[in-house]
Design goal:
By secondary structure, the protein is an alpha/beta fold. The protein is built from nine helices and eleven strands.
Length: 248
């Protein structure tokens, strides 16, 4: 079955620069976007029950922009003034730059990785005496805490937000040839909304190893996987699949 209609489990891009628009134009496809998951804040009252004192920590580890938003949100809700000597360890440059939304960037101690947590651990080890705060979602991956445990780093896990499934009931009568997922939570949302989902001829594409594993663990067939050495993006992998199957 040829791919003509694609559903991407992400919000629609705000501008027209998404590679998905080029993919649709170049291959005569219809591409729709729909958010499968949403982020909910953990209320300050609930956070207090975890008995985590933010001011006892001397450094924060950020692995996403969302973690930055919710760290400063909870500080505001609890009326906590973050010490100007607080150190910020960011997994990538883009995440570090996002800090400018909340702090005077040039006046803070900011340490930047190269996109992977393993790169950041070398910096963390150079500051091993710090007590770290790790803002996370309720459905966080276990790899970062495990690595910190292995390095014997003092840290606290702070669950500041939740990843929950969106209501997708309006899609019950809509059929797509390809479903594109970027996180295990997206697969979870699909099955929560449609517990009797049968894949049949529908193709599934996934980005990242954890998402691919979630597809297979759910008993579904994974047709397209990214990133790969010669296809670092999802759209490149989809276009390659289309051309390999003589759709053009």
């Amino acid at each position: 079955m040829k791919i003509k209609k694609i559903l991407v489990s992400q919000p629609k891009p705000e501008n027209n620069k998404s590679p998905y628009f080029d993919l649709a134009k170049n291959n005569n496809l219809k591409v729709d976007f729909r958010q499968f998951i949403q982020i909910q804040s953990v209320p300050a009252k609930e956070f207090r029950r975890a008995r985590i004192n933010i001011l006892e920590h001397t450094a924060v580890i950020f692995n996403s922009r969302t973690s930055i938003d919710h760290f400063f949100r909870i500080c505001e809700e609890l009326r906590i003034k973050v010490n100007t000597n607080m150190k910020y360890f960011c997994i990538s440059e883009s995440i570090a730059f996002y800090l400018q939304k909340y702090i005077v960037y040039r006046k803070r101690k900011i340490f930047i990785g190269k996109g992977k947590f393993d790169d950041l651990t070398n910096l963390i080890l150079k500051h091993k005496i710090e007590k770290y705060l790790l803002p996370l979602s309720n459905s966080h991956k276990l790899d970062i805490p495990k690595k910190l445990d292995k390095l014997k780093i003092k840290y606290s896990k702070a669950i500041l937000y939740r990843t929950v499934s969106c209501d997708l009931s309006d899609l019950s009568d809509v059929n797509y040839d390809l479903l594109v997922f970027y996180s295990p939570s997206g697969i979870k949302s699909l099955l929560k909304n449609f517990p009797d989902f049968e894949q049949n001829d529908t193709k599934i594409a996934s980005f990242g190893n954890s998402t691919a594993k979630a597809v297979r663990d759910a008993g579904l067939r994974l047709d397209i996987k990214a990133p790969l050495p010669k296809m670092p993006s999802m759209t490149m992998a989809i276009e390659y699949y289309i051309r390999q199957n003589d759709q053009i």
